[in-house]
Design goal:
Blueprint lengths: L1 H29 L5 H26 L7 H28 L5 H30 L9 H42 L2
């Protein structure tokens, strides 16, 4: 009697586990695949964000050096170019966002506010410099540059991490599919 009860319990558990696994594999099949185009553009964003972070560091280092406002203007122009490049990249990402996987869509959603913040800080620094054509080494200008450095590094880290995570998850999905196919 007791053995029959245990056997029924194991059989019920096996049925539940099988149903759960089938529902999970069905759910995995229903998930949208990564978009190769989005992956490529996220790679562009990663590269541009890394360059941006380096130039933002260089821009901020001008504060401690005795350089003219013209030198600041030249560096701000480079930073502005990065903002414009990131804005173009984000526009492309936003346009094809619906075709991407859930993870890719989240990546686009995380990048957009950081680029907006960088654009606002860079515009404010440019406006400040245009109105104060002297060696800029006081607030709020220094704060704009400091905020840009922090945000540029956050953007670079976020895009890089998301890009690497996406590559890893794609690799895992391929391995999983390979295992599922070999098990049939």
């Amino acid at each position: 009697m007791r053995i029959a009860s245990i056997t029924k319990s194991y059989a019920a558990r096996a049925v539940l586990v099988t149903c759960l696994l089938l529902s999970m594999s069905g759910r995995a099949i229903a998930l949208r695949e990564d978009s190769e185009q989005l992956t490529q553009i996220l790679g562009e964003a990663r590269d541009e964000a890394a360059d941006f972070a380096r130039d933002a560091d260089e821009m901020e280092s001008l504060i401690g050096n005795d350089v003219s406002w013209e030198a600041h203007a030249v560096m701000l122009d480079r930073v502005k170019d990065h903002v414009n490049n990131m804005a173009r990249i984000v526009a492309k990402l936003s346009e094809i966002r619906p075709s991407g996987s859930e993870l890719q869509q989240q990546a686009v959603d995380r990048i957009l506010p950081l680029v907006k913040e960088l654009a606002a800080n860079t515009t404010a620094a440019i406006n400040y410099l245009n109105q104060n054509k002297s060696r800029p080494n006081t607030d709020p200008y220094t704060q704009y540059l400091h905020d840009n450095v922090e945000t540029a590094h956050q953007l670079s880290s976020t895009v890089s991490s998301l890009f690497e995570y996406e590559k890893s998850m794609t690799k895992i999905a391929k391995l999983k599919n390979k295992l599922e196919l070999s098990g049939q």
